[in-house]
Amino acid sequence: MGENHPVKALDQLEMRDFDDQKVWRFVRDAAGEVNYGRVEPVRSGALLVPEDSLVMVRVVATLADGTSLMGIANVDGNPPTIYPGITLESGDRWFRLMLPPAPEPVLENKGPRSLCQFLGKAQEAVFPIRIETEVRVAATGQTMVQTLTVHGTENS
Fold first, then answer.
1. What is the pTM of this model?
2. In sequence order, what are the residues at sequence separation of 6 or more whose Cβ sits closer than 8 angstroms to the Cβ of residue 136?
3. How far, in Å, are 44, 76, 77, 104, 117 from residue 18 at the CA level?
4. Considering its fold, how many domains does the chain have in total?
């Protein structure tokens, strides 16, 4: 994509990368196969368009107790939909939250109970979590909002 915004390893993607480049995607190789370990910026504009496929955007996550955290969510589809689950940042630590219907072994390490432990908060202080994208959907001009519960997701 250019010298100023090179391809990055997924684990090197930081919140500040979304300051200038609002939408990121997984890199595809010459054969069109997705490399889930590498990402690149799609554009600096803050609109999701129908051509966007499996992109990452920054979100604001508001916990039940009113605490706000920044996070990264995957968006895909037309109309765009936020994938269940989100990566949240707390200080300099990250947590990848997975929700049902993820398998129980995944939920044990990355599910709602583990997130509460990670944050040092009771479940009632964390859930439900309201997430809202910073970018808007081109077709509606609106941000995307989703509510995460211990049982899964609800679109708003």
1. 0.87
2. 46, 47, 48, 142, 143
3. 9, 18, 21, 32, 27
4. 1
What number of other Cβ atoms are within 10 A of residue 108's Cβ?
Answer: 12
Give the pair of three-digit tokens for residue 154.
């609800």
Cβ atoms within 10 Å, residue 148: 24
User: Is the pLDDT reported for residue 124 higher than 60?
Assistant: yes
Please answer whether residues 68 and 42 qualify as being in contact, where contact means their C-beta atoms are separated by less than 8 angstroms: no
- The one-letter amino acid code at 134 reads E
Domain that includes residue 112, residue range: 46-155
Residue 122 structure tokens: 């009771």
Tokens 């390893």, residue? 9
Q: How far apart, in Å, do the first and last CA atoms of the chain sit?
A: 34
Instruction: Return the pLDDT at 3.
Output: 44
In a domain, 124, yes or no: yes
Between CA 153 and CA 86 the distance in angstroms is 11
